[in-house]
Amino acid sequence: MPTSTPEIGYQDIFKSSPAAILIIDIDAPHYTILDANDAYCHATNTQRCDMIGTSVFGSFPANPTDEVSRNIEMTHYSFQQAIQTKQSHTMANYRYDIPIRGTGEFEERYWTTTNTPILDASGEVRYFIHSPANVTELYKLNQKEQAGIDALKNQRQQLYSSFMQAPLGICIISSGDLVVQMVNDSYLELVGKDRSELEHKGIWEAVPEAADAYAPILNQVINTGEPFFAKEHEVVFIRNGTPESLFLDFVYEPISHVAGENNAVMVIVIDVTDKVLARRRIEEAEERARLAIEAAEIGTFDFDPANDTVVTSERFNAIFGFDGTRTREEFRQRIHKEDLAARQAAHERAAETGKLFYEARLIWPDGSLHWIRIQADVYYNGGDKPYRMLGTVLDITEFKRLQQQKDDFISVASHELKTPMTSVKASMQLLERLIKTQPSSDKIPAFLEKANTSLTKMQHLVDALLNVSKIAAGQLALHKSDFVAADMANECCDHVRLMGTHELILTGDTRLQVYADKERIDQVVVNLVNNAVKYAPDSNKIFLHIAQTGKMAKISVQDFGRGIPPEKLPHLFERYYRVDASGVQFSGLGLGLYISAEIIERHGGQIGVNSVVGEGSTFWFTLPLSSS
Ligand code: ADP
């Protein structure tokens, strides 16, 4: 076993070589260090004299890393390889920390070491050159690079899994052939397709139902490189074989990979169907409520008692006679002074009961009177103090007018019935007395006739009332036949001629035949002629004119009386309506024209009036002509 320094020459080169070199004896397991150069001592922080003659495994302090045994094993193996193969053997990138002189601390070092066998003249291995290179820097750099690569891989993986699991539908389509490169589950679910139907398939072959609308847009995005954004687009997809309409927010985003060239488009889709439908339902409900409120001509208000402010609808303002919104005080000033106390009381009650209700009159600046009905619910803010009042206002002027008309009618009807009844009663009493005292008195027939006239009057009144009930119940039966209108007009008004107060002049087409219920039409003409007599007492002519207009016969009754003010004309044919509501001057129930209008309308005809105050009125109606 050689123990002395080998005679290898090149001593100077060995010593000053920049590569760290140990010369080691091949005898296992000791592997004695025969020599070490300066570069070695420097690299490993050791003293040459300390090492020479010691075992390579013993000359270094305990390596603090837990890789000691692995390193020893690896070095053994490397030595043996070098001996056996007679070739250099390299141990790459292993850790072996070296002591920091005088501190007891170690410095982390990585090495790549070559064990090169040196052969003698007979070709036998005699020594090793053990040459470790400090690769710490390189190793760390590699590690860093690896860490970077790993992080990138990791990121990519994370990105991919968030892509796959994203609640948004994502699909990446290559720009050239429009083939789907990647697609996530949400997208598949959205378009109602399996992965196999979409992935690596042409997008429009996979989802043909959307091609018409969106292929041009996709092409445009590819051509221009500009993204396309869509909000709440309605798209129909065939899902499970049935077309389903979806509302989608989506974007076509070009992705450029190479030098700004777009070679894919990322489609990101959010299904907003539920949101859109929910919003539509709310909008529809609001619209329905608004239409109902509008149709009912209801004004609405939202009153804030704490600040004494009110928000009102257009209809509310209009009912109060304003063309825009006003302060609460301005609205209040329109209320009739006599109704302010009732309003105040209603508000005080509402604060307790939670319900506001009152009716009041408004006086507009033009002096016109309007009735309103206010209704509201009070809302309390936790305590008992009202903080909000939401309510409605209705214009009930017409309702009040009709109510008034009905009240008037009842008093008029009672009065109308009472007069002939009193007359009949008086005649009967006188007759009773006469029959007892002077049974053959010549006054008896006159009293009988008077009683009879009064009874006829009563009968007419009762007939009119019965007609109204029949009309209301839809039971006014018609028995139609063909007859000559002029004949009927002539016959029905003999009583007027007999009275002698008015001259009845029949003009026009006296041969015109109509198809109607003769008795009912008779009733209409009598009513119009009687009205002419009644409301034109000072003029002595009444014209009855018959003419053909198209397929109808038009029959007019013209008087030269007082006429009717234009604002009253629209109401003339209403039930109980009388121009002079007090009924002081003329008796009547306000039913004649209403019944006439019903009869004519049931015949498919029209009824109307032309009237000029001070000149007279022409009431007219039309009837179907006889077809024969
Ligand atoms: P009535 O005569 O019983 O009051 P009508 O229905 O026949 O009821 O008439 C309604 C109202 O129309 C009358 O109260 C009257 O004021 C007005 N009127 C009807 N005919 C005439 C007329 N020829 N001239 C003026 N006013 C009329």
TrEMBL record:
Entry keywords, A to Z: Kinase, Phosphoprotein, Transferase, Two-component regulatory system
InterPro entries according to UniProt: HATPase_C_sf, HATPase_dom, His_kinase_dom, HisK_dim/P_dom, HisK_dim/P_sf, PAC, PAS, PAS-assoc_C
Enzyme Commission (EC) number: 2.7.13.3
Annotated signal sequence range: none
Pfam families: HATPase_c, HisKA, PAS_3, PAS_4
Catalysis: reaction(s): ATP + protein L-histidine = ADP + protein N-phospho-L-histidine
Record's keyword annotation contains Transferase: yes
Coiled-coil regions, chain positions: none
Protein name from the UniProt record: histidine kinase
Species per Swiss-Prot/TrEMBL record: Mucilaginibacter pankratovii
